[in-house]
Design a protein that fits this description.
With 409 residues, this protein is an alpha/beta fold. The protein folds into 2 domains: 4-27 and 294-407, Aspartate Aminotransferase, domain 1 (Alpha-Beta Complex), CATH 3.90.1150.10; 40-286, Aspartate Aminotransferase, domain 2 (3-Layer(aba) Sandwich), CATH 3.40.640. Helix content is 42%, strand content 13%. The strands form 3 sheets. The chain has a 7-stranded mixed β-sheet with strand order 2-8-7-6-5-3-4, sandwiched between helices. The protein has a 3-stranded antiparallel β-sheet with strand order 9-12-11. The protein has a two-stranded parallel sheet with strand order 1-10. Strand 6, helix 9 (208-211) and strand 7 (215-219) form a beta-alpha-beta unit. It is globular. The protein starts with a helix and ends with a helix.
């Protein structure tokens, strides 16, 4: 029987900042992130403040606290704080934008085959309700060049295209899209872009004002390592009048004139726990302090580990490198031989091999049925608590798991 000592992850010295199970080699930061102990402790101080005097916290203090947190977030993202709204996750941001816009029959809503399922579902739902047509650009994987992304997306643009929902970093395949080129080319064709940046902040450099997209939403609980429930929506100033939050609340008829309706509506959607938002600046500061080169070094270190580990896995498993290095950040996917040809029982269920890798080898890493069973991908993540030896062990574990599958079929 496997014991913690058998499979304890080596980890790095920095791993002490996280509470990750020492019996597990955790190579799946990309799914839900992992919040450092220091940031969790900071969030708890904010919760204590909230519970000590709730009326003071929500009625008198919260607006100023949110203003300060947004200012620090804006500096990190290259955005004006007044164009940012805190939300619970990127899927919420996608829904807020798509539900706010007025589509109708004849309109086309463009996305790609690699868009995250939850957000693609939101686009399909809006299309069904409005009579618009969802249009899907097919991005290949494996892929040889970012040019293929640009060509595939632009080939589907028509004079009826109203919006393009595009990943900055894809979830399933781990590709960094050439988002600046895409936004620029779509803007030239009169098409607004809604950027799904769920994985981007903390993984790649994000400069929202320079990018110029009409809409950009991203998570902070993943690569920024803020608490769960910390995310943002950025709406360009000339588009804010149309965008409403997913939850309509007091701000809808607020008489205030000192703030925009965008600000008033998004800053209060009802009683909730806002401490994840308030802890986001502390996560930015803390993660940026862990290496001498700050956030540039954090991003560089994670990317270099991801690229090196991808090379090891591809070589050991006999798989060709599936994407150029310029399209990889801190997550990377590798095609595996076909698995079981069975439907997924739920959105969070992955390939049975994922359970085998955890239960028999003490490794948590996603094996993703994509684009549909029996096709599947092995997706690795690299965060400061990971080290190279963990991916060597992963390669051995996958080899043995594949051998086990062959002997049972």
């Amino acid at each position: 029987m496997r014991t913690a000592a058998d499979n304890a992850r080596s980890g790095t010295a920095l791993a002490a900042h996280w509470t990750i199970d020492p019996a597990v080699s955790y190579l799946n930061h990309g799914s839900f992130g992992a919040t450092p102990k220091h940031v969790i402790e900071f969030q708890q101080t904010m919760r204590d403040r909230m519970e000590r005097q709730g009326v003071r916290f929500f009625v008198r203090d919260l607006e100023g606290l949110l203003d300060s947190a947004r200012a620090e977030l804006g500096a990190f993202l290259g955005a004006d704080a007044d164009d940012l709204a805190f939300i619970s996750n990127a899927t919420t941001g996608v829904n807020a934008v798509l539900r706010s816009l007025d589509f109708g029959p004849g309109d086309e809503l463009l996305t790609t085959n690699q868009e995250y399922n939850a957000c693609a579902n939101a686009l399909r739902y809006i299309a069904e309700r409005s009579g618009a047509t969802p249009v899907v650009a097919e991005i290949p994987f494996p892929i040889a060049s970012p040019d293929q992304v640009v060509e595939a997306v632009l080939s589907m643009v028509t004079d009826r295209t109203r919006i393009a929902l595009l990943d900055h970093v894809t979830s399933q395949t781990g590709l960094v899209f050439p988002i600046e080129r895409l936004v620029r080319e779509l803007e030239a064709r009169g098409v607004d872009t809604l950027v799904d940046g769920a994985h981007s902040p903390g993984m790649v450099e994000v400069d929202i004002d320079r990018l110029g997209a009409a809409y950009y939403t991203g998570n902070l609980h993943k690569w920024v390592c803020a608490p769960k429930g910390a995310a943002f929506l950025h709406v360009r100033r000339d588009r804010q009048e149309r965008i409403r939050p997913a939850i309509i609340s007091h701000g809808a008829n607020s008489p205030r004139t000192d703030r925009s309706r965008f600000r008033v509506e998004f800053d209060w959607m009802g009683t909730d726990d806002p401490t994840a938002w308030l802890a986001a600046p502390e996560a930015i500061r803390f993660m940026g302090s862990l290496l001498p080169g700050g956030w540039d070094e954090v991003r560089r270190r994670n990317r270099e580990l991801c690229l090196a580990s991808r090379r090891v896995l591809c070589e050991r498993l006999g798989v060709a490198i599936p994407a150029p290095e310029e399209m990889i950040g801190s997550i990377a996917s590798i095609p595996l031989v076909d698995g079981a040809d069975a439907p997924q029982p739920s959105a969070l269920f992955l390939d049975p091999m994922q359970d085998v890798l955890l239960e028999e080898f003490g490794i948590e890493v996603p094996v993703i049925p994509w684009p549909a069973p029996p096709k599947r991908l092995l997706r690795i993540s690299a965060q400061l608590y990971n080290e190279a030896s963990e991916y060597e062990r992963l390669a051995t574990a996958v080899e043995r798991a594949l051998e086990g599958e062959r002997t049972t079929t």
